[in-house]
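Example record

One chain of 95 residues, shown exactly as stored in the release files.
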Amino acid sequence: MVNRNKILSDLSKFAVDAMSTFAGVKEEIETIVSLRVDKVIKKMNLVKKDEFEVLSKIVQKLVAENAKLKKTSNKSSPKKKKSIRKKKVLKRKIR
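Predicted structure tokens for this chain:
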């Protein structure tokens, strides 16, 4: 009986040690994989999410500003065309 308890005790110690070893191996593998993924990302020259969001907001503002400028230029362009047409007509009359 005492011998059996000692065997069970030794087996439980072995199991506990194996579990802690596996936990350590798991952490090492996660660290190695994380470092390799970071290395690949740096090689691919990818942009971080927060940088992308900032640039996206800037681009959206610029697009809206560009649309406003196009609208204002379209409104003023007919006046210019009329004045250009008048000048052409006057040149023709002068000749």
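Notes: DSSP finds two helices and no strands in the chain.
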